[in-house]
Write a structure and sequence with these properties.
- By secondary structure, the chain is mostly helical.
- It is built from four helices and no strands.
- The protein starts with a helix and ends in a 23-residue tail after the last helix.
């Protein structure tokens, strides 16, 4: 397997990331990127609480580092941040799609009760 095959495999894994189970709601992709970039697979998995993502990121980093004789470690560490951010974005999109639609006539999204008339007016 050469580096071109490895990069194609990593790209395919990234494309399929939206099919994994969503995380808990409210995660920030920017914070996830920082955790994944600074902490690698462990940092990304600690922020998302996902052991599956830990193993996916670890496999990418280890396989890529071995294939590039250590030269690819820094770009692959950056890949952990990108993976975490993309997974969080896909998870947040899944939560938005599964949210119930707003009530008819509720433009603001806050409350469906009409405002009270003011006294003395």
């Amino acid at each position: 397997m050469n580096n071109q095959h490895f990069s194609h495999a990593v790209a395919h894994v990234f494309k399929e990331s939206d099919k994994l189970a969503p995380f808990r709601p409210g995660l920030n992709p920017k914070v996830g990127f920082l955790c994944g970039f600074l902490g690698g697979p462990l940092g990304g998995a600690a922020y998302t609480h996902s052991i599956n993502d830990f193993w996916i990121m670890t496999a990418i980093v280890v396989a890529g580092t071995v294939m590039t004789a250590g030269i690819g470690l820094v770009p692959l560490w950056l890949c952990c941040g990108a993976w975490t951010a993309i997974r969080i974005r896909h998870s947040n999109d899944a939560h938005r799609r599964s949210a119930p639609p707003p009530l008819p006539g509720d433009v603001s999204g806050s409350s469906s009760t009409p405002p009270r008339p003011q006294e003395g007016a």
